[in-house]
Each structure stands twice: as structure tokens, then as C-alpha cells.
């Protein structure tokens, strides 16, 4: 692999992780927290970025030095654990992919006025088209990059138009008026939780970028992925802050659309449609690709026919949305379970980092282990709390 190809894969893995994170929920979450916390949400973003980097560096490095996917590492650590982790990832990925497909439909509705179900089918067709191509993974890398850049440019444009109080945002990012720890943990889970944790790491492994000698490149790719997702988050925060600081109220049913519409009128609403479509369709691709990568350990057929399994994953997600609409209870349960996936998988990676039979002579940095341990404890507490809160709703 030459230097140019290597850089393309590293950038593709970074954007795959970032665009997998930036889905419909990411957009809504950012605007809702901005409305409730104001400029102090900048501190939440800053803290979550630090924790996100810690998570991704831990996971990507251990996957790289072991030259194994997360589920295989888990099975080596404790027989059967990998299958349990794979089941959690695939079920969570499938449930959220239904929401991603729905988001793509809503994006096309805002952009072109199409019926959301028709829009979802068209968007799913584009995602499936990526995996019908000969060099599907290279096309996936480039598609994620193009859509990611498009989202960033549109959100920056709206952020400039909204004229946020930059001085206040900068000040409150280091001296907040209030600190919302639940918001911090929610952002970490939304950015590097569930299948997103492994999207980039598994992509690098598939491309042959692994081993201790390549850790500097792995580190750069991991940090770049968090950087791209954080850039989207920061500029969307600034755009929303510009709106709420003027005393305008975001529409409760669709807060991110309100930000774009209140800032740039009808054109802004079209821009929102394009951003939502880009965010959703890249999340569809990232979710399907990463979820299927966890099935490769179940049977050799999955690895041989990987693209067809990915296509089937996208198609079934779309059929569920078109057939029965957005299954709210499934999404609620998946959201609660997703909060538990990160502490389980990250704890597994951290334990594996100290097993010579898995990582050989590699010595994992102590500061990364401490960082990871803090995230495991925080996310386990938050995930358990969220799950307990949702159980009564599911029973009803």
C-alpha cells in the first residue's frame, strides 16, 4: 500500500466514523442541549471531545496491535463474550438504522418535498448502490468524505448567518454557568457509542492497516474522526446559539430544522434537508458496514459475501420503516441498550490490552487505560440509569 493509498484509507476511516456518529439523533441532540444550556453547552462539548478521543484511541489501537476485530478479541478474552458483544452491536445497529433511514426520508422531504417513505426508499437505494460497485469500500470512503465536507460547509454557512455571541461561547466553554454531567455522557454515547466505536477501527483492519508499527497512523485517523464529528457539533452549536441568544424559540418537533429556517428562511430549510439527508445516509452506510463486520465471526459465508449482507441489512431496515413506520419502542429499547454497549466493549478492550496472547509485546499507555476506565464507569452508570427509566415505558 503506497503512501497516497494509505492516507486515503486513513481519511476514509476517520470520515466513516465521524459520519456514522453524525446522524439524525446527533443533530437533534445538539440543538436541544444548546437551547437548554445556552453558551455553557460549549463546556459540555469540550469535555465530551476529550473523552471521545480517549475512547477511540483505546479501541482503535488495541484492534490494530491485535490485528483482530472487536468480537474476536472479546472471544479470546472470554469464550462466548464476542458473540454477545456482536449480538448487542447488530441489534442496536439495526434498530438505529431504521431511524437513520427515516431521517433520510425526512431530509428528502425538506429538500424536495417528497413523501418521507418514498424519500427513505430512494436514499436506501443510493446506499445500496455504493455496495454494488466493484471497489465498494473505496467508494464508501470517498462518499463519506464528500458528504462529510458538504455537511460541514452548510453548517458553517448557517453558523455565520446566525451571528452567535462568540465571546460568550468561548468564555462559557471554559467557565460554564452550569455543568450538566448527563449531557456530557449523552454526547459521548452519541458520538462513540454502539457500532460507532468500531466503525473506523474495523475499516482500517479490512484495509490492512494494523500492527504496532502503524500505530502513529492509527492515532491520527482516530483523532481525525473525532475532529470531524466535533467540527460539525461545534458549528451546529454556534448556529443554534445564534438563534436562541436572540430570544427565538426552536420548534419542539424538529429543533435542527428550526435553526436553519430561522436563520436563512426557506433556503435554510432546504439546507437543513440536505444536511439531514447527508447525515442520515452516511449513518445508514456506517451502521450497515460496521454491524455486518461483527457477523464475520459467525460464519465464513458472511466474509465472502460481505457486500450482499450489507445490502440486505439496509434493505430490511428500509422495509421495516416503510412497512410499519418508525418503531418507537424498539428505538427506545435500543437507545437504552446502546448506552450499555460502550462500557461493556471498552472494558473488554482495556482488559485485552494487558493479555499477551492478544496483543503480544505491546504495552498500552497507562494514561489511556485510566481515561478508558473513567469512561467505562460513567457510561455504565448512565446506561443503567437510562435503561431503568425506559423499562416502565416499554411495559406500558
Task: Describe it.
This protein has helices at 3-21, 24-37, 41-66, 70-77, 81-112, 116-132, 136-162, 166-174, 181-192, 196-206, 215-244, 255-293, 300-304, 306-324, 328-352, 356-359, 366-395. With 396 residues, it is mostly helical. The chain has a single domain (3-326), classed as Hydantoin permease (Orthogonal Bundle). The chain is globular.
Work out the number of β strands. Answer: 0
Which second-level CATH architecture applies?
Answer: Orthogonal Bundle
Calculate Rg over CA atoms.
20 Å
> So what's the CATH class?
Mainly Alpha
State the order of secondary-structure elements, H for helix, E for strand: HHHHHHHHHHHHHHHHH
Helical percent range? over 70%
Number of domains: 1
In round numbers, the mean pLDDT is 88
How does the overall form come out from the CA principal axes?
A: globular
GO molecular function: cadmium ion transmembrane transporter activity; manganese ion transmembrane transporter activity
Membrane topology: Multi-pass membrane protein
Protein name: Mn2+ and Fe2+ transporters of the NRAMP family protein
Organism: Cesiribacter andamanensis AMV16
Amino acid at each position: 500500500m503506497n503512501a497516497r493509498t494509505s492516507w486515503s484509507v486513513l481519511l476514509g476511516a476517520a470520515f466513516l466514523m465521524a459520519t456514522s456518529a453524525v446522524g439524525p439523533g446527533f443533530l437533534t441532540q445538539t440543538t436541544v442541549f444548546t437551547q437548554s444550556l445556552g453558551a455553557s453547552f460549549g463546556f459540555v462539548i469540550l469535555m465530551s471531545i476529550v473523552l471521545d478521543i480517549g475512547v477511540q484511541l483505546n479501541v482503535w489501537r488495541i484492534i490494530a496491535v491485535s490485528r483482530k476485530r472487536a468480537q474476536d478479541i472479546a472471544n479470546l478474552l472470554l469464550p462466548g463474550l464476542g458473540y454477545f458483544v456482536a449480538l448487542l452491536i447488530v441489534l442496536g445497529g439495526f434498530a438505529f438504522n431504521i431511524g437513520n433511514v427515516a431521517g433520510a426520508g425526512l431530509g428528502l422531504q425538506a429538500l424536495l418535498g417528497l413523501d418521507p417513505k418514498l424519500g427513505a426508499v430512494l436514499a436506501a437505494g443510493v446506499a445500496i448502490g455504493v455496495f454494488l460497485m466493484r471497489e465498494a469500500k473505496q467508494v464508501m470512503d470517498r462518499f463519506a468524505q464528500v458528504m462529510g465536507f458538504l455537511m460541514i460547509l452548510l453548517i458553517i454557512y448557517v453558523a455565520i448567518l446566525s451571528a452567535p455571541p462568540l465571546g460568550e461561547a468561548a468564555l462559557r466553554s471554559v467557565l460554564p454557568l452550569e455543568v450538566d454531567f448527563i449531557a456530557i455522557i449523552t454526547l459521548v454515547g452519541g458520538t462513540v457509542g454502539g457500532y460507532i466505536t468500531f466503525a473506523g477501527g474495523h475499516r482500517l483492519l479490512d484495509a490492512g492497516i494494523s500492527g504496532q508499527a502503524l500505530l502513529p497512523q492509527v492515532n491520527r485517523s482516530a483523532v481525525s474522526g473525532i475532529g470531524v464529528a466535533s467540527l460539525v457539533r461545534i458549528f451546529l452549536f454556534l448556529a443554534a446559539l445564534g438563534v436562541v441568544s436572540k430570544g427565538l424559540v426552536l420548534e419542539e418537533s424538529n429543533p435542527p430544522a428550526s435553526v436553519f429556517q430561522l436563520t436563512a428562511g426557506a433556503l435554510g430549510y432546504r439546507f437543513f434537508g440536505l444536511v439531514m439527508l447527508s447525515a442520515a445516509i452516511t449513518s445508514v452506510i456506517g451502521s450497515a458496514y460496521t454491524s455486518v463486520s461483527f457477523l464475520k465471526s459467525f460464519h465464513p459465508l458472511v466474509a465472502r459475501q460481505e457486500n450482499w449482507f450489507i445490502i440486505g441489512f439496509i434493505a430490511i431496515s428500509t422495509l421495516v420503516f416503510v412497512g410499519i413506520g418508525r418503531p418507537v419502542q424498539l428505538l427506545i429499547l435500543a437507545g437504552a441498550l446502546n448506552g450499555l454497549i460502550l462500557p461493556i466493549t471498552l472494558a473488554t478492550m482495556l482488559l485485552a490490552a494487558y493479555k499477551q496472547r492478544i496483543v503480544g509485546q505491546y504495552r498500552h499507555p497507562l494514561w489511556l487505560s485510566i481515561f478508558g476506565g473513567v469512561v467505562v464507569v460513567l457510561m455504565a452508570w448512565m446506561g443503567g440509569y437510562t435503561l431503568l427509566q425506559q423499562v416502565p415505558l416499554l411495559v406500558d
